[in-house]
Structures are given as C-alpha cells and as structure tokens.
Design a protein that fits this description.
This protein is mainly beta. The radius of gyration is 32 Å and the shape is elongated.
Length: 235
C-alpha cells in the first residue's frame, strides 16, 4: 500500500499503556496513578515515582504534607514543608545554623549541622566520652560554664591513657600524634601529655636560608627548616 507505514515498522516506535490499551510515541508522557510514565523505546516504558520524603523529627519547624491524590504527578506526591530552608538547621534555642557549622549546646553537647539523605539539614550531636577504664580518677568534675565542647567535659586522669581534647580521642601510653598547631604530642605512663614543638632554626652559614614549613602539614613537616646550597665552604 502506497503512503502507509507497515505495521511492523510502526510498532518499533510505539509503547503500549496497559491502562486502556493506548499506544504512545517515543518521548510521550502520561500519568498512571501517582506515577509519571515515559515512552523511551520499543514497548519500553520508564516510570517516575514519588521520592521518599525524610526529614529530621527534631526540627519542629518541619512537617510532612500529603500530596493531592487527584492532582497530576508530581503534585500528588507527599512533600516536606519547613518554615526555614531545608539546608538550614535549628539549634535548641531556635536559632538558625548553617550547614557545616559547629556549636556547643547546654549540657556540654557538641552539635554540627549536616546534610542528610534527601538533602535535608539535620543536627548531629555528641556527648562527653565516659572514662576508658575503671581505674581512671575524676580530676575536674564540673568545668567552668560557657566552655566549648570538649573543654566543658569532666577531666579524668587514667594510668597509661591520655586524652586529646582537640581530637576528642583517648590514646595509649607511648602513642604519638599530631593535632592543631605545629607540634607532636606524646602520651606518658602517668596519663599526662608532653608536647614537642619545632626547634629554633637560623641560617648563619653563607649559602643557607630558612624555608617555611608546609602550613597544612603535620609535625614535623610544618616546621621551618634550613636549606643550604653546596659551595667551597663545604668539607
């Protein structure tokens, strides 16, 4: 037949919808309940469903709103509605906190605003660590009010163990570690921490110069050092 497309060719570019037996062209979309269907190829249909809505129940300014069951996709989907943007946290006092901000709440609780699954900002919280062993001795039970975490936590003295408030971690006797500042910490058997700082360096010899350390490197890579060019004065 002239001027008509054979049925076999026509079917390769159509999709069948099972809710009425209609045929759809490639790229055409339709709704099947609260689902968006898309014809992508030879009788191949992709379906888009409502995303799972998750939010932090500790945020009183957020609530889950049911979608309109009689509306088209995606208005039929449930949604999270917040009085403040989803990428902003609320602290215990109701103040707004930006993502990645860290603060200390009452009761010496470290809080951090993070993005959780679904793109919603949530508050992650840490409390003071308990002593690592039963032979620890409580030295400072109630630190001064207003101090930031972990400096507001009780202080313990533990034989063979040392605590780093910067890393919020316990170390064993003989351990060495680097933390904020250009120095190395060492855990003594008494439970105390000694620190080794960068030595003083100067370039007094001809052909020598003082080179700054790497500001983001750990000890001793962050320390200043002396570099000398070889010359007749060597040897």
């Amino acid at each position: 037949m002239v001027g008509r497309t054979p049925a076999a060719v026509l079917l390769t570019t159509l999709c069948s919808a099972f809710d009425g037996g209609r045929w759809y062209s490639v790229g055409e979309q339709w709704d099947d309940g609260c689902t968006r269907a898309i014809c992508v190829g030879t009788d191949r249909v992709e379906r888009l469903s409502c995303p799972g809505q998750r939010y932090d129940p500790s945020r009183p300014d957020c609530r889950l709103v049911e979608g309109n069951s009689s509306a088209a996709f995606p208005l039929c989907c449930d949604s999270v509605v917040c009085d403040t943007p989803l990428d902003v946290c609320r602290d215990s006092a109701g103040a707004s906190r930006a993502v990645d901000s860290v603060w200390t709440e009452r009761g010496c609780v470290r809080s951090r605003c993070e993005i959780a699954e679904g793109g919603v900002a949530v508050v992650r919280r840490w409390r003071c660590q308990p002593p690592p062993s039963a032979d620890c001795r409580l030295v400072v039970p109630n630190p001064a009010d207003g101090a930031d975490y972990p400096y507001c936590c009780p202080t313990y003295l533990c034989p063979g163990r040392c605590y780093s408030p910067v890393l919020d971690r316990w170390f064993f006797e003989g351990d060495r570690w680097a933390e904020g500042g250009c120095f190395e910490s060492f855990c003594e058997s008494t439970g105390t921490v000694t620190q080794t700082r960068c030595p003083f360096v100067s370039a007094r010899r001809p052909g020598c110069r003082v080179v700054a350390g790497d500001p983001v490197a750990k000890y001793p890579g962050c320390c200043r050092r002396v570099e000398c060019q070889p010359g007749p004065y060597d040897g």
